[in-house]
Amino acid sequence: MEFLAEYDAIPTADAPGRVGLLRRRMKADGPALLRELRERRPVFVTPVGVFVTRMADVMEVLSTPDVFTVGVYGPALEEALHGPFMLARDGADVHWHDRAHAQLMLPAEDVAPVRRLTARIADDALDRAVAVARMEGRTTFDYVQEYAAPVAARVAREYLGFTDVPEETLHTLSQRVQRAVFVNQERDPEVHASGVAAGKELHDVVAGVIARRRAVGTGPGTGAAGGTGAAGGRPADGSAQHEATPDDVLGRMLRASLPPGTGRELDDERINHQLVGYLIGYQQNAAQCAATALKELASRPDELARAERAAADEDTAVFDGYVWEALRFHPFVPSTPRLCVRDHVLAAGTPRATPLAPGTVVHAHLASAMFDGTVVEEPYAFRPDRTPVHNLVLGHGAHDCVGKYPARAIVPETVRRVLLRPGVRPLPGAVRDLDYAGTPYPQHYTVTAGATASS
Ligand code: HEM
């Protein structure tokens, strides 16, 4: 039976019955359920919030932060970060200031150096994974554990500046925080406590990194970010002590100062919250996207062959289109919740206009919006040359991804290095077999161990 017919047949008073059906159907076949909603009930009012499924309405929710705030997960995020952060707040204070600061620390000029850094780290990881597989007499390796996760963590270390922090620490701690804040919508106390404890560990690790950096001076060196940011450039005195600190994002933050009178001091605690917040916004996203993009491409052999040819081109614009289109079919953030804080009519002036009261939770379904046939041409066709306007993989509006420039380099390049490597491909017959191992994140994905770069 179609979802809505079955849902409507359950009496309104039986909220648990309706919610149970909604959860079961979403789990069993989310895309089919969302398609039905988009076509028949695009603003769907349920006991667990309002599901918003069309592009225009998702954009409205995400672009109106004085009505729709991040209050659903904001408090949990700040508890885990042990301090204020932009993705936990709206308005003139923390969000506006921290975003301005972040835009200077994560500038568009980073795209080329971060892409080169990712290529180096990814090639090295592929060499290692293939070599270890051969040494152990295996013909496959685990793409998530031996490639996507460590590559993302090593880029975080070298670009963001988590100097000397083990890859495993960055990956597992950030996963616990991510899960507690963004996945744990029921606020299960055990998952929440685990995330808060992981956030504290990250905070303390970063406090140590910052203290060591301060001890040797905070001038720019020759690190991955290459002095490209607003805070980049060599100090006037050119002292040797300044050479000791890599010019990564943390190095920039340690050197930067805000104009006097802005009211928010850039002290080491605030830098700590920013850096850990960046890791939470990045690590799981990058590792998962590298896996799901490859899975979506490998599921379409003709597109995969075209993507392989595009990967060989030095101008990566065409290739990148394949990766972002692949991610449209499997985004890291399929839906993001917002808290309605004042009376508002959503989609005013349309047949789906819906009055919303303060306190209503609204689920902005990014994954659904990207398949909205009223604005996206042939939404179910794989088209790598689509306009980026309809690609919401990096979010939209007031809280869209402030790390979008590095993300646009890291994610496609991590996939590209694989497609440039003959023989490293998802296992035939199992190209869609991401193994989540009972967690919300892909943990294993088997790929064939092809040739090393030198063989
Ligand atoms: C690697 C792939 C990435 C993906 C798929 C991704 C995705 C997203 C999405 C969907 C949002 C919006 C969340 C929402 O509206 O609830 C977001 C926000 C954010 N992202 Fe990313 N992101 C990526 C990389 C990064 C990187 C590299 C950084 C920083 C180094 C970063 C930092 C952030 C921050 C701080 C926000 C919140 C911005 C705000 O509150 O104004 N992300 N990201």
Please explain how this structure is put together.
- This is Cytochrome.
- By secondary structure, this protein is of the alpha+beta class.
- The chain has a single domain, classed as Orthogonal Bundle (Cytochrome p450).
- Helices cover 51% and strands 7% of the residues.
- The chain is built from 16 helices and nine strands.
- The protein has helices at 3-9, 15-40, 55-62, 74-81, 94-105, 111-135, 143-160, 167-183, 189-216, 240-243, 249-255, 268-298, 301-311, 317-328, 366-369, 404-419; strands at residues 43-46, 49-52, 68-69, 140-142, 336-340, 344-346, 354-356, 361-364, 446-448.
- The strands form three sheets. A five-stranded mixed beta sheet has the order 1-2-8-5-3, sandwiched between helices. A two-stranded antiparallel ribbon has the order 4-9. It has a two-stranded antiparallel sheet with strand order 6-7.
- Strand 6 and strand 7 (354-356) form a beta hairpin.
- Helix 1 packs antiparallel against helix 2.
- It is globular, with a radius of gyration of 23 Å.
- Protoporphyrin IX containing FE (HEM) binds next to helix 12 and helix 16.
- The site of protoporphyrin IX containing FE has 26 residues, from helix 12 and helix 16.
